[in-house]
Prior knowledge:
Strand content: 15-25%
Oligomer: single chain
Amino acid sequence: MGEMKDLLPVEVKYPQEIKCPVVLLLDTSYSMHGEPMKLLNEGVGLLFKEISNDHKARKRVELAIITFGGSVKIAHNFSVVEDYQFKPYEADGETPMGHAILEGLELLEERKKQYKSEGIAYYRPWLVLMTDGYPTDMEPKEGDSLWQEVRKMIQQAENEKRVICWAFGVEGADMTALFALFANKRVFKLKGFPFKEIFLWLSSSIGRVIGSKPGEKVVIDVPPGIVVEV
């Protein structure tokens, strides 16, 4: 993918700890400008704070952040939160969601290869997408090759238990496209822009995961205060 070839492997800190890799795919297109982007930035900052305050999470959770607004950017490669200097994101451009998803899936696979080569145990990775719009680099139809590729990659990764995908559509999001892409039912329509609540839920849910053993079944509550589309 676009930026993967330019990335060097990042050291895995605390290799004795079981890792929980999480990729955030954040829509930073122009439609997010103003208050939505302000709330998104505050939510990301809150997530870092919550993970940092958990003695187990701050050593086990590895976050990577990919933004898609105009172009797809790996804003932050995998690391524990103590190594991340957060700089607020800015809204700009269109919504290349398809390429962002492929970039996120590839980034996860590369990190898992690194874990395996270094003998580091890990939980099933999470891929979390947040958007307020419609993908501008693909269309939900049979003749669109990128759409078909993205949908296939998501389904294969889920079916083979290589990743757990979550998709959140805030005010203005095209939920039809999200449901077609993420057929696992972990697709949620949000009222307004409740990023704070979603990131608090994410931190709490990850906390449940890292309190278990890899391969165990963990009950994750539905995010509170939102409309659930099934």
